[in-house]
Automatic annotation (TrEMBL), chain A:
GO MF entry, a single one: monooxygenase activity
Keyword Oxidoreductase tagged: yes
CDD domains given in the database record: AAMH_A
Protein name (Swiss-Prot/TrEMBL): Aromatic/alkene/methane monooxygenase hydroxylase/oxygenase subunit alpha
Domain of life per record: Bacteria
TrEMBL record, chain B:
GO terms for MF: monooxygenase activity
Parts of the chain that traverse the membrane: none
Coiled-coil annotated residue ranges, if any: none
The organism of origin for this protein: Bradyrhizobium denitrificans
Keywords (A to Z) from UniProt: Monooxygenase, Oxidoreductase
Protein name in the entry: Aromatic/alkene monooxygenase hydroxylase subunit beta
InterPro entries per record: Ferritin-like_SF, MP_mOase_hydro, Phenol_Hydrox, RNR-like
């Protein structure tokens, strides 16, 4: 047989080109003439140009490709069990997955729903194929993540917290942050939500920290399952990024869209930063046991993925279309991470609130301290004593750190916009919207609520823009409740009816575990209620006082 | 697995293994999702992957929806359909589809269709198709692909509006199947066109837009696409259009007539859609049966579904009747329109009976 003869050459026959296939598929649509197509979700943008599908893929190649990806994922999960992965996994890491995996399936499926909103808005049908694949992708992501979570629940030493996952998602103070993220994908102005917030910012920029940086840390902690699932998920994101960019290009040449695009890029970037960096930064920096000084810190990862990869190569080129890029916000977000300790303050807050969590948080130790000080000089002076207190107060019978006045921690206000607490005290602001006082973690979040989510933007009517709603301050839901009753109401109690789901340690022994009785006797309260009750002068004083921050007392 | 079996070193109070069973403590054996009632004795994998992923204030959403549309409508609203339910969470998709099963099934179909077309073309089959039949494929199968696309885009739109994950995911997979089939036909016709000189791949769209034979179908499809009620779209698709027009044309014509015209490829390509429909129909009947027997809203829902049935059946029946000339076009006639239509009417009567609906007189 000739060396150049291959099976492919023998069996190949003339077919249509990929471009031709994509063109034919794009010609399936038509403009209805008998009945007007159903109302869709409105937008204030104008889309006059037909977006192009950069991927030129059709479903006949898409489905087998995805099945192959799935086969690799599920095969790897089987292999991980055969290799006894859980014997060597770091529980500190897996515990944080109880929070992460409670949150993420809803944003994913929200993105699927979001395709219904954006799919009909663009003229032409070409990109509809891309949106169709994204819709099915997001269905994939949501259910493959539910499967991963079930797999952890079945095989990890402590399943409590995984077992209540979707109920916990609806109730926990931390998962609300993820809901703000997800509801932003599918509520309000369809282009703001489905194009700018979801695809242009969340998927193009922040999935890199979510689905690329975080899996690397998982692998360092003996968890090979998360990288397997999430890198497979991320491989779909490149298509979504293409969809988002193509849609953006269909709007960007119309100057009447520029004002809204500038608003939405600013809102979406700031809120993605506030939410994703808080959560993923904490998982990566505090969920790990690996303290290799040569590995990148979250700040360094952020610089690589968000600053270099997204800001410099994706956002800046938009300026040539006449879009004003919010350079100041990018710089401010960077400062919040490297100078103002945003991630560390978030981790500290999660730890203070441990008893109302549904996952365990272990104290940081000397080994961790050394790494943090190396990567974030000055860390020890600000956070060292706190984590020593946390370790000391992790024993049942001690006063819950949330209410322990010896520590010196002052419970924060909740940001009405991103829903992360106002942790960088010096940036705390308040404002009045529709006659009510609200608190915010930053000027960016104040602007988001008061200026961006309104019926008018810089003198222009924005009738499609969404509004903030619901009981956005979690603490208000349990104002005046004893924390033990609140935990019970949340359902964060183990099947024995008394042991807390959350524990401030990784000791897997009943005698070391906190019960409802250990935490009973302290009341939760809404910081906002008290703040609103102040007179304007008192409020000014309270703001100044809050901005001064607090000092953790030495722990001996 | 015990700690000993896992090989972990266990010192008193210190557990070195992160594996299930390496320590016993409160909750250490709680290894099932415990926040929903399974439909059967035990939760299925589909239920574990699906139930409660889309939350709502009735199911654990402590702080309510936190973003709204400018008129105050929340992220998900029960008002997006005129149908009412005392428990939107009861429905479970009969096909139990979650991502893995969906990709496996879709991928298998793609492989089956591609192999059939490739092998058929390799053996020179399209050149042996009866010339009159080639025209039918070009003009009428070519036109019909747009109907499938219309249903795909309509259900793609509809999957945003359902109140639960179970409802929305069933509509999503329906959309995925329809859009795949629309593409299957498109690519099939484009590929056999390479072997058939003079085959006009653009003729189908022209017939869809202009040929009087297809205008009833187009109107029927546009009426589904034009409904502002997502459940009306889902109902009209599977309980009305599919049995009266979709199956009529696919099974009642293409699959029965093709082989007599020397065409063994088209039935294989089209058969996938028939299998897709069986699953979509099962999900639809389950959902509308639950709504039609709802403890509080049965009468309201049945009246509503009867209204939808009457409206869309009239359109669909008109569409079906206008297709009649196609049955006369093949050179070898193996099936009559009246037989096929009788079968289609029988099918929709069966579906209506299953749902407790009144069959419109025009379908008798």
């Amino acid at each position: 047989m000739s060396a150049s003869l291959t099976l492919n050459k023998i069996t190949a026959q003339k077919g249509i080109t990929i471009a031709e296939a994509a063109n034919r598929v794009a010609d399936l649509g038509w403009t209805p003439s008998y009945v007007q197509e159903a109302m869709t979700f409105p937008t204030d943008y104008k889309i006059s140009k037909t977006p192009r599908d950069p991927m030129k893929q059709v479903l006949r190649s898409y489905f087998p490709m995805q099945e192959e990806k799935d086969n690799r994922v599920y095969g790897a999960l089987d292999a991980a069990l055969r290799g006894d992965m859980f014997r060597n996994v770091e529980p500190r890491w897996v515990e944080w997955m109880k929070l992460f995996l409670a949150i993420i399936p809803f944003p994913e499926i929200s993105a699927a729903r979001s395709m219904a909103m954006v799919g009909r808005l663009a003229p032409g049908e070409e990109l509809r194929t891309g949106f169709t694949m994204q819709m099915v992708d997001e269905f994939r992501h949501s259910t493959i993540q539910m499967n991963l979570k079930k797999w952890y629940m079945e095989n990890y030493i402590d399943p409590a917290g995984f077992d209540i996952t979707e109920a916990a998602f609806g109730k926990c103070y931390a998962t609300t942050i993820g809901r703000q993220f997800a509801e932003g994908f599918l509520t309000g102005d369809a282009i703001t939500a489905a194009n700018v917030y979801l695809t242009v910012v969340a998927e193009t920029a922040f999935t890199n920290t979510l689905f690329v940086a975080m899996p690397s840390e998982a692998a360092r902690n003996g968890d090979y399952a998360l990288p397997t699932v999430f890198l497979s998920v991320q491989s779909d994101e490149s298509r979504h990024i293409g969809n988002g960019h193509s849609m953006l290009m269909a709007m960007i040449n119309d100057p009447s869209n520029h004002q809204l695009l500038e608003r939405d890029l600013k809102y979406a970037f700031w809120q993605n930063h506030a939410i994703v960096d808080a959560a993923i930064g904490t998982f990566i920096e505090y969920g790990t046991t690996n303290r290799d000084k040569n590995k990148e810190s979250y700040a360094e990862l952020w610089h690589r993925w968000i600053y270099e990869d997204y800001y410099r190569t994706y956002m800046l080129p938009l300026e040539k279309y006449g879009i004003k890029i919010h350079h100041d916000d990018v710089a401010a977000a960077w400062d919040r991470i490297v100078k103002k300790n945003y991630v560390h303050k978030t981790a500290q807050f999660f730890a203070v609130g441990w008893s109302a969590n549904f996952w365990r948080i272990e104290a940081q130790t000397e080994k961790d301290f050394e790494w943090f000080e190396h990567k974030y000089p000055g860390w020890y002076a600000e956070f060292g004593d706190f984590w020593k207190w946390y370790a000391k107060l992790s024993v049942p019978g001690e006063t819950n750190i949330l209410f322990n006045s010896d520590v010196g921690y002052v419970y924060p206000h909740r940001c009405w916009s991103c829903m992360v607490p106002c942790l960088i005290r010096e940036d705390f602001v308040c404002d009045e919207v529709d006659g009510k006082i609200y608190t915010y973690c930053s000027e960016g979040c104040r602007w988001t609520h008061k200026v961006a989510f309104a019926a008018e933007y810089e003198g222009r009517a924005t009738p499609a823009m969404g509004r903030f709603s619901g009981r956005r301050e979690w603490e208000d839901c349990y104002h005046g409740w004893d924390i033990a009753d609140a935990i019970k109401d949340l359902g964060f109690v183990r099947p024995d009816g008394k042991t807390l789901t959350a524990q401030p340690h990784l000791r897997f022994d009943a005698k070391d575990m906190w019960t409802l009785d250990h935490v009973r006797g302290h009341q939760l309260g809404s910081p906002l209620r008290g703040f609103r009750a102040l007179s304007p002068i008192e409020r000014e004083i309270a703001v100044a006082d809050y901005r001064k921050g607090f000092t953790i007392n030495p722990c001996h | 697995m015990s700690a000993q079996a896992s090989g972990a070193t266990v010192e008193p109070g210190v557990v070195k293994s992160g594996a299930a069973g390496s320590a016993v403590f409160p909750g250490s054996d709680s290894r099932k999702y415990n926040y929903f009632e399974p439909k059967g004795r035990k939760a299925t994998h589909y239920e574990d992957m699906t139930v409660d992923v889309q939350p709502d204030p009735e199911r654990y959403l402590l702080q309510d929806w936190i973003i709204s549309f400018p008129d105050g409508t929340p992220t998900y609203s029960k008002d997006w359909t005129a149908a009412k339910s005392s428990n939107w969470h009861k429905f479970r998709a009969v096909d139990q589809e979650w991502e893995r099963t969906h990709y496996q099934r879709q991928s298998t179909i793609c492989g089956m269709v591609q192999n059939t077309i490739e092998n058929g073309r390799k053996s020179g089959a399209p050149a042996r198709f009866d010339p009159a039949w080639v025209k039918i494929l070009q003009n009428h199968l070519g036109a019909y692909k747009h109907a499938e696309f219309g249903l795909g885009t309509s259900t793609m739109q509809a999957q945003r509006y359902g109140y639960t994950q179970m409802v929305n995911n069933a509509i999503l997979t329906n959309s995925s199947y329809k859009l795949r089939f629309a593409q299957d036909i498109t690519l099939y016709l484009s590929e056999i066109a390479l072997d058939l000189p003079g085959f006009d791949v653009n003729a189908g769209k022209q017939h869809w837009l202009e040929d009087p034979i297809w205008q009833g179908v187009r109107k029927s499809i546009e009426s589904v696409m034009g409904s502002n009620d997502y459940l009306e779209q889902y109902f009209a698709t599977n309980a009305v259009f599919e049995p009266v027009v979709g199956e009529l044309f696919r099974s009642g014509f293409l699959m029965q007539a093709a082989s007599a015209q020397n065409d063994f490829i088209t039935p294989a390509v089209v058969s996938a859609a028939e299998a897709d429909y069986e699953r979509n129909l099962a999900n639809t009947v389950e959902l509308f049966h639950i709504l039609g027997t709802d403890a509080q809203h049965a009468a309201h829902n049945i009246a509503l579904f009867n209204k939808w049935l009457a409206k869309h059946a009239e359109l669909a029946l008109d569409a079906a009747n206008r297709l009649q000339p196609i049955w006369s076009q093949p050179r070898v006639k193996v099936v009559t329109f009246s037989d096929a239509l009788a079968q289609a009417k029988n099918r929709i009567r069966g579906i209506a009976a299953e749902l407790g609906l009144t069959v419109p007189a025009i379908l008798s």
